[in-house]
Amino acid sequence: MNKFKAALFDLDGTLVDTESQYSIFWGKMGKKYHPEIPDFDQVIKGTTLPNIYQNYFPEKQTQEEITPLLYAWEAQMEYPFIKGAVEFILELKRKGVMCAVVTSSNEDKLNSLRKKTPGFDDYFDRILTSEMFTKSKPDPECYLMAAKLFGCDKSECVVFEDALNGLKAGKSAGMLTVGLTTTNSAERISGLCDLIVDDFTKLSFDKLNERLESSCGM
């Protein structure tokens, strides 16, 4: 019996290798506007732009300065898949697993990605962006919403994340959470996920299905 019904993927740093590019941008913004926070680019990882603005750039003028710079940056970024991601997603689809992107990025960012990666949407049954959520990661709202859209119980879902806030969201949702070491070290994420991998090359449907079945005592 297949217990694994839905795969819920974060985007940046999980599906596509973009976190180092974002670190450059937000590092510059941090130095300019918040020099008192030396690791600003790490602090905001995994959260939505409205959340970043609300917590760190509440002034409308500052937001109006940053937004066009961010969109211009995203338009020139590259969006290569994390090693093994495409092959893993195709395996899941062959097994009947529903796949969703659950990202803190907005539709403007997704449109930039689509221009660089034609056919991206074809890999997924749903793409959930920040416009759909009222709360930002680490709140579990986004993952609980994805499970509901698929008609799945949380025990049938697996979350894939790299950022601390995203890993916390997955665990808070009560879902099996896989942490990728693309952004943080294994030591740093060890208490925030159920399984740690460097990329998708060592993952398989059978391995994760067995974990879900064992966690339910099947």
Helix and strand arrangement:
Layout: E1 6-9, H1 19-33, H2 40-43, H3 49-56, H4 60-76, H5 85-94, E2 98-102, H6 107-116, E3 126-128, H7 141-150, E4 157-161, H8 164-172, E5 176-180, H9 186-189, E6 195-197, H10 205-215
Parallel strand pairs: 1-2, 1-4, 2-3, 4-5, 5-6
Q: How many helices in DSSP terms? A: 10
Number of domains: 2
CATH architecture of the largest domain: 3-Layer(aba) Sandwich
How do the helices and strands follow one another from N- to C-terminus?
EHHHHHEHEHEHEHEH
Helix-strand category: alpha/beta
E-strand count: 6
Helix content: 40-55%
Strand content: 5-15%
| CATH level-four homologous superfamily name of the largest domain | HAD superfamily/HAD-like
Strand order of the largest sheet: 3-2-1-4-5-6
Give the overall shape: globular
What is the CATH topology assignment of the largest domain? Rossmann fold
Q: Write down the CATH class of the largest domain.
A: Alpha Beta
Distance between the termini: 10 Å
Mean pLDDT: 94
Report on the biggest sheet.
6 strands, parallel
Radius of gyration: 17 Å
Poorly predicted tracts of residues: none
